[in-house]
Amino acid sequence: MGQISEQLPIVVESLNIGFLQTLKLFFVTLTGSFPLGLVIAFGSMSRFRPLSYLTKLIVWIIRGTPLMIQLLIIYYFPGLVLHNPIWGSGEAGRFLAASVSFIFNYACYFSEIYRGGIQSVPIGQEEAGLVLGMTKPQIFFKITLLQMIKRIVPPMSNEIITLVKDTSLARIIALQEIIWAGQAFMKGSHGISGAIWPLFFTAVYYLIFNGILTMLLGRLEKKLDYFR
Amino acid sequence: MIMPILEVEHICKSFHQTEVLKDITFSLEKGQAVSIIGSSGSGKTTLLRCLNFLETPDQGIIRVNSETLFDANDPSTRIESAIRKKRLHFGLVFQSFHLFPQYTALENTMLATELLAKERPDYKAKKKDIHEEIRAQAEALLAQMGLENRMDNYPHQLSGGQCQRVAIARALALKPDILCFDEPTSALDPELTGEVLRVIRNLADGNTTMVIVTHEMAFARDVANHIIFMDDGVIVEQGAPSQIFGHPAEERTRQFLKGYMGTGHF
């Protein structure tokens, strides 16, 4: 144990840097996939059949294959197969490729949750808006949206918490997130080698962050309790 | 001869193979109230939905103030973007209110008017004045509905009768030429229908032009200037309340009214 307490400050400093990358990927993914999911949801609900079929095909492929495979294909396919390494080299390139993979993947899951939320708002709400002379966008943004958000907070919370942990999949393309940082101490890093405990210790970061998220999402749910 | 404010001519509407409206023709004068009665499934609600452009008739013409709002044979009257403005000639009060749950009674009443005001060319310059004006108007309407103490309540905090009165205020806020009611008391507990019917009666006394679909026969007889009896998608008989309720000419009307005798609705 004495050894661990000596190593702790070094490990924590390194894990902090890794976790910062984890957080960056987490927030970038949410920022991109929240709106993109809405676009996909409208695509799959479109009355223009080709668009709705195409959207459903994409959602099927993305939800039907592992995110890890998607990461590998998106990162390596342009460079190794097309000989056109669009992502650029180094950590910045890996982060860009990981962000694109995560945004698409999560947008597809979000789109289905959005669709369920939108369709659960009674049709009478839209009709009331129409007879009051509102446009379709006004009806969506002023009437439907908040009612949809209220309904989807619980399933979205689930996905958001899953995303925190899923960011660790980016390790497969060597993104230097917290798992990568923890693992580094096994091979040797900062003068420490053969240590497995830093990898185990990363779980504490996830646990605390998810605890904070659960609390915030619970507050949001409470805040939307003012109407039914 | 007074020009009718509303003219409905030869309206037909089918859903798949089912003919719901078959050649409906009637007119309405400004300041008058017409009540449409008939059993469930007779097409009353579909007729109101056609007037409010929630359904598109297969055949027929709808005119308001001699302006042709809809003509099934004239594609230029069916353009989606123009329909929005045409809807504003009509207001519709739904059976189950359809208030917006995330807004207070006052906000429900103001929302559509505020969104429309944003299209005014002078909106940016007079934003504050316009907002105040809309707010004052909405408050006056809610007070007229007897809801001066309920303005800041959300729909789930209100009774059914109060909700329906907010819905009436919301429809009136846009100053429609013709206000339509689709069975306004059918979703209410019996003890709450009185307050809503009283409000509609007051509107009739104030010469609001109205089309009222209702199952409250006594109310229809008292409030309406004109009664239309519909059955199976056609207007069987129409005329003054005294005529329809006192001396119905058609056997179907007699049979229908007989069903209401002694039910407390008559």
Write the layout of secondary structure elements.
The complex is a heterodimer of chains A (228) and B (266).
Chain A: H1 2-45, H2 49-64, H3 67-81, H4 90-119, H5 123-131, H6 136-166, H7 178-187, H8 197-223
Chain B: E1 4-15, E2 18-29, E3 33-37, H1 44-51, E4 59-64, E5 67-71, H2 80-87, E6 90-93, H3 105-117, H4 123-144, H5 160-172, E7 178-182, H6 190-205, E8 210-213, H7 217-223, E9 226-231, E10 234-239, H8 241-246, H9 251-260
Parallel strand pairs in B: 3-8, 3-9, 6-7, 7-8
Antiparallel strand pairs in B: 1-2, 1-4, 4-5, 9-10
Helix pairs in contact in B: 3-4, 3-5, 4-5, 5-6
Concise summary:
The complex is a heterodimer of chains A (228) and B (266). By secondary structure, chain A is mainly α.
Structure overview:
The complex is a heterodimer of chains A (228) and B (266). Chain A is mainly α and 228 residues long. Helices cover 80% and strands 0% of the residues of chain A. Chain A has 8 helices and no strands. The longest helix of chain A is centred in the N-terminal third of the chain and has 44 residues, at 2-45. Chain A is flat and about 70 Å long. In chain A, 30% of the residues are buried. By secondary structure, chain B is of the alpha/beta class. Chain B has 2 domains: 4-89 and 176-260, P-loop containing nucleotide triphosphate hydrolases (Rossmann fold, 3-Layer(aba) Sandwich), CATH 3.40.50; 103-161 and 169-175, no CATH class. Chain B is 39% helix and 24% strand. Chain B is built from 9 helices and 10 strands. A 6-stranded mixed sheet of chain B has the order 6-7-8-3-9-10, with helices on both faces. The radius of gyration of chain B is 19 Å and the shape is globular. The two termini of chain B are 33 Å apart. At the A-B interface, helix 5 and helix 6 of A face helix 2, strand 6 and helix 3 of B.
